[in-house]
Amino acid sequence: MTDAQWRQFVSYGTRTGKLSTVRADGGPHVTPIWFVLDGDELVFNTGKDSVKGRNLIRDGRVALCVDDDRPPYSFVVVRGRARVSEDLDEIRHWATRIGARYMGEERAEKFGARNGVPGELLVRVTIDRVLAERDVAD
Known about the structure:
The chain is built from four helices and seven strands; from the N terminus they run H-E-E-E-E-H-E-E-H-H-E. By secondary structure, it is α+β, with helices and mostly antiparallel strands. The chain has a single domain (3-133), classed as Electron Transport, Fmn-binding Protein, Chain A (Pnp Oxidase, Chain A, Roll), CATH 2.30.110. The chain has a seven-stranded antiparallel sheet with strand order 2-1-5-6-7-4-3. Strand 5 and strand 6 (74-85) form a beta hairpin. Helix 3 runs antiparallel to helix 4. The relative contact order is 0.22. Residues 4-130 form the Pyridoxamine 5'-phosphate oxidase N-terminal domain.
């Protein structure tokens, strides 16, 4: 895929990402996430005390896979480095935008208020590498 194509693919509808972080013992931890693309960064929020939150605070290396599980199958894998923030205004802003993507504009504020609270982290992943394949079964 071209740069524009993979960006459109990961931003399409309500596709979730499967985020891989690095555990303290070096092993992988994978979890689904809601996210938005902001220029050359992926943005999401998570609990500071969650496994992924603790992993990201300790080691910012991540990989994110977004796929279309219907034939002929396509996927994008993004690798990068995350940085975290506890700025509540920023968390609420982005949690609202993410809520709008996944739950609709009419419920966006509700999700922003629910997730824009102390104990949450805003995570921004600077994209270092992209592997994007379209129609792999053709």
